[in-house]
Records
---
Amino acid sequence: MLKRVLLVGLLAGLAAGLAMAVLQHFTTVPLIMAAEAYEAAPAGVATEPAPAATGHDHGAMGHEHGGSAWMPADGLERTLSTTVATVVSVMGFALVLIAVLLLAGEEITPTRALAYAAAGFASTGLATALGLAPELPGSAAADLVDRQLWWGATVLATALALYLLIRAKPFWAKPVGVLLLVAPHVVGAPHPDGYASVAPAELAAHFASASLAVHAVMWALVGASVGFFWQRVRA
Amino acid sequence: MNTTLNSAASSAVKVKSDVRTAALLALIAGIGLVFTTGFAHPELLHNAAHDWRHSMSFPCH
């Protein structure tokens, strides 16, 4: 069983991940690069006196934004680096989807996998975007760890809520499901005090919708390929 | 007869626990991969996965 799970996760992640890398290359990545050009323009003045702005203490440790770590060069290197990250990440999503289907006692067919993938999109794409809108580089944001914690908690609560609302039988499942669905948004996502983005609003709006569409396609591809490969790999 | 039934039942239990073990391992591995590419803080990982993190609207920077 474990062999089948891992093999299907690997194959589905590879197929869906490579397709996602191509899709991103033509949709979200050009918008990210355009935003970086805006981010870099006014910072052109600030790059020179950077030590004064960022403080000296990070220089030695070099893990904040010191720029000491490797960074892919624009062009083929950046595309390859993004592709590897995408494929590895999509493999992760595929494995999570298989795990949830198995734990829920579902038979893994393309239709079933796609239905659970839709719930995945509602959890990691829609629910999180309601609190934390997709960000272009250079936009203002609250503390990273706070936002990551809210993101993780929201995904967990939403996924559990959808399971309780759609699949669970007990009488308490529906009210608890509604509570879990709403709770992250009542608590509220961490937000910055002001706005800092230098990219035009049109660019940010375009990016927000492109990012959500790409996210939806990611889950659709993961669902379809998990269903497809599960039917074909016997271990 | 009884022995066959018993062994059938125990192998069904074994299959069920096999499935659960495999699912839990896949869950841990999957979350690990998503975390490493999407959320881990080391600058090297952040830089390598930068465009993917933004595309997926994972909290970044």
---
Amino acid sequence: MDKKMASWMFTKMNDIRNFENQVQKIFATGEIPGFVHLYAGEEAVAVGVCAHLENLDYITSTHRGHGHCIAKGCDLNGMMAEIFGKETGLCNGKGGSMHIADLEVGMLGANGIVGGGFPLAVGAGLSADILENGGVAVCFFGDGANNHGTFHEGINIAAALNLPVVFVAENNGFGEATPFEYATSAKTIADRAIAYDIPGVRVDGNDVTKVYEVAEEAIERARNGEGPTLIEAITYRTSGHFEGDNQAYKSESDKEKWPVEVDCIEQFKAYALENKLLSKTELEELEKASLKAVEEAVEFAHHSKVPNEEALTENVYVSYK
Amino acid sequence: MARKITFSKAINEAMDIAMERDNKVILIGEDVAGGATVDHLQDEEAWGGVFGVTKGLGNKFGRKRVIDMPIAEAGYMGASVAAAVTGLRPISELMFNDFIGSAMDEIMNQGAKIRYMFGGKAEVPLTIRTSHGAGAGAAAQHSQSLYGMLTAIPGLKVVVPSNPYDAKGLLLTAIEDNDMVAFFEDKTLYSMKGEVPEGYYTIPLGKAEIKRAGDDLTIVAIGKMVQVAESAANQLAKQNVEVEIIDPRSLSPLDEDTILQSVEKTGRLLIIDEANPRCNVATDISAMVVDKGFDFLDAPIKMVTAPHAPTPFATNLEQLYIPRAETVVRTVKDMIGELTLSR
């Protein structure tokens, strides 16, 4: 990893954290409609993987998708405006938090349906394979989704057809309010790769440098026509399933330990300093710039207009008056 | 005065009573208890459903009867179907009706077909409880009203309650029914309060309720749309227009007689349905009235529905998406004409 990459990763992780902190704060005031699922604490997974992706590569995401969007290069202003339901949002305010997409940067959509991303990533992989453009598709999914039928159907198709797809599980311990261990009859998600005869790798999902290494190998394999890999990144959901969740299913010790002792940003900061990738001053400057960028996104969203009424029935193929 | 409880609590009470009366009744779904196997909870539930509708049932009846499922709608819905066929009486919760996409084969090709395909030798006493409806800012994949899709399928009964009293009585009937019943709960009604008797009572399926009597025009309104109809009726009454409001309560079976008798009296029919306009329950009821009551009609039937579009996220657009009382008032006025208004 060079200085440029370290700087990119540190910025992206901070962007995600600051973005989610702002969303959490503003959601509590009632200004953001619907519900939001926050990614704070899991930044290392999205960033470590997307570090290897170009605009022509696609990712699919989940209901907890803000981090994937940011790591893949979605515009912060457009994202925040989308979450506010404004016309300037990446989906013109029609999708909201759970449906942020930007095909120009290869973001094939957050997704309100658990397990919705697997077949979509397979389709993006199929396009890349047939178009021979060197692209890969990455499917981010939560541990809850690994018990869904689409997980098995999607991975099997990708493996059977040897498609350039990388499946990245974010095992944050809980599917909604249910522990991973209760819902999943396997010791690990990575173990399930054996069933499809593809590599399955477990990685510390809070160490962005380790995610970076594992993802590099998997994405390289996919690009070289060697087929899919299943990566399981172990992390922790420091927030609730949604904002407002009582989180009664979490133990007090875990709640205290994870955001502080196992903070992926703090870990990477120490790593970057120790390996002389970034100086203390540089880190501080990047932190400040990130804070500013996110504050600007909030301002942008605040001052944007809501969509015109005509937008209600636009983009539906067919209209009936 | 009778006690008032929420729509959510009324549904909870119905399940509680059904589970007390019959130990074959079990509750299945995603986080219907929540926090399974978590040490510090010692088997106490963490959630009681994402909307809290099943709260307390896990603690009262235990995890053997209130069963959290992996996020695997096809898997547990199919299991619910066969559990019903083989001796249990499950209530299976589909968190959002939009997730029916993941479980449709089990509902449509398995559950709904079994009794008929097996020559009447099997019964499927399964109740599928699910939430529907826009208005919560939940966007395109969590806001649909898909009861019409299921109403189209033979082998299924479909219930859409509009208030707490009906919700409790209809759900108890649904659970006791020996056929598969899909029970749709508008998520924006969960906090609605209404008078609900304590204890056991049932409301038959296929029996509509006349919510308000009137001679000028009939409004059939589904689920939460009853409130929209009532608001419109209040405004219209000030202009001496008296509408009759009918809440069908169950869409399959459908109380055709009550609707037809009302249209015979008023000569005019407007239907309010929050679902998208093509092939929905409004078009279905409209076709039924044209077929069986054409001679009663003095004006074309009108429908007020959501537009032919997915549910938008932006609040201003979502408000336009949901049928509104002002649209109903305007439509009613068009239907009855100025003559009636000035009488």
